[in-house]
């Protein structure tokens, strides 16, 4: 197996504009080992003067898919994301290493339990890898996605999620600032989680990914509602630096 700690070449071979500030990059990285759904890679940029900067990005592509995909949200004061979102052109190269991670991982051969995904903002990326793996493997496991965003125009993978809904995946969108019909949104509450997520007595596998505050609030609500802690897998992120 390829060494996940070794930096390898990756060329941009395709792109999808997800939102005004987010872009999916399709990277051809033939020397990168096969990934599981939910893992991430490190991306390294090197300037002409030799200065390097690296960041971690979840893989949003299905397990084993080529080219691999990452979705990058641009941060105005970021060191890496503005270049990846605005400047990296088809044919340009970066370095990647990985895949990394073994906790927030879904394997389609681990049973028949339903799967509940809960995402906050860009935390939907590794969960999208799970949804794509379900589709790619022909799994019939019941899946639900509870997706929290600030505004409807911040939704990633909009058309693909609509297609997955037609294929038996339930998608619940929750907007904290502005709803799709233009109304005022509100923060996701424990009552919303209880109403929209698969009930604890159905023993689902649960995966939660998003900003730290969002993940902590959702995980606490799930445990209080009877979900065993070891069935609630979480991954959180915050600003770099």
TrEMBL record:
Pfam families in UniProt: FAD_binding_6, NAD_binding_1
Gene3D superfamilies in alphabetical order: Nucleotide-binding domain of ferredoxin-NADP reductase (FNR) module (3.40.50.80), Translation factors (2.40.30.10)
FAD-binding FR-type domain mapped to chain residues: 5-106
The keyword Transport is assigned to this record: no
Tagged with keyword Metal-binding: yes
InterPro entries in alphabetical order: Cbr1-like_FAD-bd_dom (IPR008333), FAD-bd_FR_type (IPR017927), FNR_nucleotide-bd (IPR039261), MRET (IPR050415), OxRdtase_FAD/NAD-bd (IPR001433), Riboflavin_synthase-like_b-brl (IPR017938)
PROSITE patterns membership: FAD_FR
Superkingdom classification of source: Bacteria
Cofactors, names only: FAD
Entry keyword set: 2Fe-2S, Iron, Iron-sulfur, Metal-binding
Record-given protein name: FAD-binding oxidoreductase
């Amino acid at each position: 197996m390829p060494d996940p700690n070794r930096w390898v070449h990756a060329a941009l071979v395709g792109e999808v504009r997800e939102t005004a500030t987010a872009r999916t990059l399709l990277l051809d990285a033939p020397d990168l080992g096969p990934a599981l759904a939910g893992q991430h890679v490190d991306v390294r940029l090197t300037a002409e003067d030799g200065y390097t900067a690296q960041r971690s990005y979840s893989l949003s592509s299905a397990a084993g898919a080529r080219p691999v995909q990452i979705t990058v949200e641009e941060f105005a004061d970021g060191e890496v994301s503005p270049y990846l979102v605005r400047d990296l052109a088809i044919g340009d190269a970066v370095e990647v290493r990985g895949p990394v991670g073994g906790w927030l991982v879904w394997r389609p051969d681990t049973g028949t339990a339903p799967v509940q995904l809960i995402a906050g903002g860009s935390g939907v990326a590794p969960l999208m890898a799970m949804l794509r793996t379900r589709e790619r493997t022909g799994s019939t496991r019941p899946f639900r996605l509870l997706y929290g965003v600030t505004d409807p125009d911040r939704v990633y993978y909009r058309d693909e999620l609509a297609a997955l809904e037609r294929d038996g995946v339930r998608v619940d969108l929750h907007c904290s600032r502005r709803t799709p019909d233009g109304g005022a949104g509100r923060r996701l509450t424990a009552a919303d989680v209880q109403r929209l997520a698969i009930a604890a007595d159905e023993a689902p596998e649960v995966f939660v990914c998003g900003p730290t505050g969002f993940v902590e609030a959702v995980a606490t609500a799930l445990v209080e509602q009877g979900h065993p802690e070891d069935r609630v897998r979480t991954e959180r992120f915050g600003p770099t630096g």
